[in-house]
Design brief:
mainly alpha, 8 helices, rod-shaped
Length: 286
Amino acid sequence: MPVPVSSGAGIAWVTAGVDGQCALTSCASLAANNCRSAATYCRFGGMIEDQFKPMTITAFIDPLAIGLVAGASFAVAWMQNGSAAALCALAALRTELWIKPQAEADDGHRAVLRIEHLVESRGTGCVDRIKQPGFVGSAADAMANQRSLQGFEDAVARLAAQRRTRLATQVRFWDNVADMAPAMGMLGTVTGLIMLFGDVEDAASIGRAMALALLTTLYGLVLANLIAGPIAKRLARIAAEEQSWHDDVARRLIAIGRLAYPDITASGLYVSTEPPRAFKGAAARS
């Protein structure tokens, strides 16, 4: 007859044989307990692994938040400055932002030396042969096309003013973007909080709304302090350095022009710098 025997592993049923030996006849309850423990451990470990998995860069990318902050900031700056100024400021990302003022100033001074030598040898009519990009090249074209010193001075002053206005417009636009970005970030934060409290029963919507609220603030700070603000400061520094060497180049070109236009007035009339001479016929009659 089978006899129950208790042990730490459970209850085993033992049968006594004819020869006095015992045989184990029950199922292995210890193995079953071990399996259940292993399954519980796997489920719990999986939950821990899901909760503590490393974050990736995609967790900080939200197209909706980016569009809200960047789009609203640029839209407000666009309305404040106009379409022409906005396009000019965006063009600075391709041109003015990469200017090296010192190298450009050195090239400009060397071009002025070439202009001076050309004026001394061939006159002002050939100055436009010097192909120099930027302010110096435009000033050389003006020297070749103007007929008077006053006209040339006005042309140089107009070119310098246009360049200063362009850079000032670009700086103002990017300053406006930097000023508006934190405010647009706070607007996104308020929008996210409204979404959060509007549907507190849905756990998925709560997480989405909280992410929008936090990411818009982050994007506003990044746009203001790491993108638009540095761009505006660099353009302002380039404008200050350009104005310095532009003024120097303008003074040198006007000095060359005083030698190139000695006898031409602003109206284009010839004025002799020598005293008037009597005609030979009049001298003979006297």
